[in-house]
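Project standup — Tuesday

K.O.: blocked on the structure for the chain from last sprint. Re-posting the sequence here as requested.
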Amino acid sequence: MSSTAPAGSGDRAPAGRRIVAWLIDWLCVLVLPLLHAAVGVAAGGMGLRLPAWGWNVVSFLILIVPVTVWAARRESGPLQATPGKRRMRLAVADAWSGRPVRFGPALLRNTLKIAVPWELGHTVAFAFVSQAGGEVPGPVVALTVVTYAVMFCWLGSLFLPSARTPYDLAGGTRVVRRTP
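H.V.: unblocked you, prediction finished:
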């Protein structure tokens, strides 16, 4: 497919196919945290100690940022799709023209789709771990509620008639069925 050819017929991608594509992508992505966990255990065994916020920063830089950029590169590349979307015959396209999306909008889309909820989840998890059985402060509880609200909003928006999620709207994208 040419990098200037429309991605698909313009038919919106069904929610179920998008969810399966996401699951396939996360099976691919899970390799990275497993490798990082092994490195983290080894570093801890050698005496490296960081506070919870330090581990959160490290995980953001070596895990969340690379995965977000990877997804944006895949969706703005000639195939217009991550491996899961390719498998499910879906593509990310410019919402108005149907043409391939540029890297900037794809990065914005994936920052909102991947980096923001993942980092919110990490921040909450590290905050709970740092409490170690103590009373959880109100801001951590509030952030937990925000984290779940974002996740349910992203998931629920797949089932709206437009099937355009908030991150699709912000990036000016849509996910469409790929034509054979």
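K.O.: great, moving the ticket to review. Residues 1-9 have pLDDT under 50 and may be disordered. The beta strands are 8-12, 90-94, 173-178.
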